[in-house]
Amino acid sequence: MRERLSATAVIADDEPLLRYHLNQTLAEVWPQLEVVASDQDGKSVLASIKQYQPDIAFLDIRMPGLDGISVAKALKSIDKVPLIVFVTAYDEYAIKAFDEQAIDYLLKPFNETRLLQTCERIQHYLKNRYSETQEGNKLSIDVLKSLVATIKSPANQYLRWIKASKGDDICLISVDEVNYLHAEAKYVSVYTHDDEYLIRTPLKELIKQLDPDVFWQIHRSTIVRVDAIEKVKRDFTGRMVVYLQDTGEKLTVSRNAQGLFKQM
């Protein structure tokens, strides 16, 4: 952003780690933005908006009590309505979000580049809001269609980080750090170069959220990051085995998945 404006914002998300992630990323892309409140539910953020009168509200849609859409509806009765950015993992709410005059819609997991685009859109809007008519302040139909098309784009839906547990801690792991995922019983183990974490999301759900050019499901219980593979070999029985770089770990390839390696 060439010229950064000063502004205030509130954040609402029922996941503490996601609130932290958004807060930290905003500090990187827009240092002049002051986050005046960070809340975990709709009722709390509504009170914060009335108290602090921020310029922007980053609202999760699925929250305890009042959801993000309900918060947006309730804001219509206050004097200073902030610009609304909905932040959610569920793209089916896109049209409802824009019905509530959201200036943008961030689909989790978002990256710094996508958040920067949002901040640039907000700054452009803030610069011009007082010179435009009330009607002109509303997002045009063409802009809405463009934003919804962006949201629906598969490229924006791939996971960029995974929330997993290690002992009593909850950690955010970049997918770039993941070597492979392996399902056992009720859990899926997430293996990085030097650590192991647990998640409950089934592999059949995870594979839909991972970039197919980056992650391959080589067995019904195993997903591997392609560039973590050092080599693929067959043993004397004809079984194919993947060897990982650095760690030297061996992962079995099912017969159905052997076709993935024909061009390697």
Automatic annotation (TrEMBL):
SUPFAM superfamilies assigned: CheY-like (SSF52172)
Q: Which SMART domains match?
A: LytTR, REC
Domain Response regulatory span(s) in chain numbering: 8-123
Task: Return the InterPro entries for the record.
Answer: CheY-like_superfamily, LytR-like, LytTR_DNA-bd_dom, Sig_transdc_resp-reg_receiver
Keyword rRNA-binding in record: no
Gene Ontology MF terms in the entry: DNA binding; phosphorelay response regulator activity
In this UniProt entry, the residues modified to 4-aspartylphosphate are D60
Q: Report the residue ranges that make up the HTH LytTR-type domain in this protein.
A: 162-264
Source taxon at top rank: Bacteria
Query: Which keywords, in A-to-Z order, does the entry hold?
Result: DNA-binding, Phosphoprotein, Two-component regulatory system
Q: Which PANTHER family match?
A: STAGE 0 SPORULATION PROTEIN A HOMOLOG (PTHR37299:SF1), TRANSCRIPTIONAL REGULATOR-RELATED (PTHR37299)
Full protein name:
DNA-binding response regulator
Q: Please spell out the taxonomic lineage of the organism that makes this protein.
A: Bacteria, Pseudomonadati, Pseudomonadota, Gammaproteobacteria, Vibrionales
